[in-house]
Every structure is written in structure tokens, then in C-alpha cells.
Predict the structure.
Amino acid sequence: MKPVFSFQNEIKKQIIKIKELDHEKQSTERHKTVFTVILGSNLPPQEKTVITLQQEAAGVVGAAIETSKTTLLTTELREASFSDPGKPTWSELEQLLYLTAVIKEGLRLGYGVAQRLPRISKHKAIQYDTYSVPPGTPFSMSSYTQHTSSIFNDCFAFNPDRWLTTAKVASAPGREEKSLDRFFVPFSKGTRWCLGQTLAWAQFYIGLAT
């Protein structure tokens, strides 16, 4: 646990140092961080406390690490042509359809964050099938529930081939059919999706290829 506490203490020191700067100095910082952006925003004071910012930092860093480590799958890259065979680029690796399918399937079954992530629509009702969720009512889902639903045939089987087809599926009988990617949410979606997902994707591609 020592590395965890060391990380938390270091983050706390950085937050306190930034909070000691006046607003003008925060806005002109050459290298902006998550902390300077939050502290310079119009969020209420309770969202800018040291403990809240510590939790934000832990969420960003911890989520990326947890999701990444559970998706370290072993596979081989065959018949791939790179500009530098010893050092393929991320953009080149993204073109490999089966490698992409393996990563997606690993993410689907490797639940980085399994708990529900509640959302609230403050001003208007949300329509879900035949149900109407009143304004101000928390509603939620989890990636585990989504990725192990009947949308994914034989959902507990590791099957990268499911991502290689252009076939569409419906979330329920009689509903509109959509691409599987529509139901793929390892990093959540919307305005609260994972800030570290681009870094995570780069790690998956480069890590598996090298």
C-alpha cells in the first residue's frame, strides 16, 4: 500500500501548490493540468476542495490502470506490414482488424469499473422503451450488465470474431437494429466518459504488438 499512499500524498502536494496560486496565475500556467482547469472553472467551492480533487485524480489514473491491466491478452501479429517492423506506429496498428477485435473483446470481458454510474436528467423526462423516467430521478447502468446482456451472443465466451462482422443487433425484440459498437461501453459514454481512454487504446495496441 506504500506506493498508493505516496501517490496520494504527491497529488495532495500538487493540489495545495496550485491552490496557493492566485486565479490570474492559474489561468496563465503554461502547462495546464486537470487541477488548474477545475480550479479555474465556475464549479461550486465544494467541488474544488483538496479531497475532492484528490478523488478526481485517483479516478482518472486508477481507472486507466485497472482497465489496461485486465486487457493484457496474448496474440500474434501475422502478415502485417509496418514502416518500421521493429516499431509499429499506433495509426498502423489500428488498421489491423483482428488485433482491434481482440482488444475490444478483452475490454468487453475485462470490467475495469463494474459498479453502476448514475445519471440525472434535471429538466426533462428520459424515455426508455415504454418507461418514462421523471426529471431529477437517478438512473444507471454498468458495463458488466451491458456487456453480458443478450445483445452479445454467448456473452461469456471470448470471441473476437463477433467484432469482425457488419451485422446489426437489436437490444430487444422489435427494436431498431444497431452496430455492436453502439452497445460497447468499457469507458462509459457521453460527457462523463473516461478521460484516459485514448491513452489506454494506445497502450493496448502498442503493448500487444511489441
User: Anything to note?
Assistant: The radius of gyration is 21 Å.
